[in-house]
Amino acid sequence: MTPERILTWIDGSIHEPDDARVSVFDRGFLYGDAVYELVRFFDDVGMGMDLHIERLRRSLDRTGITGFDPGTYPSICRTLMDALETSDACIYLQVSRGVQVPRRHAPDGTLSPTVVAIGSTSAPLSELEEPIQVPIIVLPDLRRRSCDIKATSLIENVMATIQAVDADAAEPILHEDGLLTEGGSSNVFVVRNGTLLTPALGDPRPILEGVTRRFVVEAAGNLGIEIMEGDVPVDALREADEAFVTSSRRLLGTITSVDGRQIGDGRPGAVTMQVFEEVRRIIQTVLENEHAH
Ligand code: PDD
Predict the structure, then answer these.
(1) What is the model's pTM?
(2) Cα dihedral across residues 99, 105, 107, 108: positive or negative
């Protein structure tokens, strides 16, 4: 695997990571008063780009952060990928409410947003042969309520992830009153008796509508696998035949163990592999269609 290369884009110019700076008075830095997206590119095509733009628009609307046109996300990605000389990358974009002096919770009405992007090279589709392995631990969901907004205020996600790493896991899976919500940076799916279960978007609390989650729902539909979006008790995960997490960066990750107890044989199960292959096929078709134009 070639090492990851990283460049940043700050309000229009490209910087090496060491030279990438914003003001300490940026509200993103001070309050996590910022929203973000991360889109994965295979072969120069942003996966679910329109969905990422739409979600960014919703996050901006909900938070009232103005002055950035989400429609410019693809051209920022293009600039970064040209600078990185790559066709396969993850492009993170963050839009904060802006720089405000002196520090005050109430935003000054005249702010213009700080827009930064981070591009990192990533593996091409051909190298993704199977889902990555993700041991998880289950933790209570202590996050802010409005988790459907993709905001950078992620302290509880970070604290839960630290707990996971301390327990030799890779991801925390969160629950509220015994019902799963989502992972620290992923959505979660459980396979029981051939059916896919995933927490609904609204209950028991708002979760992020993942773009990869959508791909999985589409894949399950194509494969004729039943999918239930609703309450998923923690025990359904503990007793799962198979389980996996999804995110733009990692695509599908097989949950190999829950709180140290192995799931299945610790390898991607049959349903997980079927879904993974179908998601890959959907991506491949998108690439072929894009390149035919
Ligand atoms: N996060 N839920 C949470 C809390 C997330 O942070 C993410 C992804 C997802 C999956 O969304 P998508 O499939 O659209 O990437 C669900 C990004 C990748 C991150 O924080 O890096």
Answers:
(1) 0.96
(2) negative
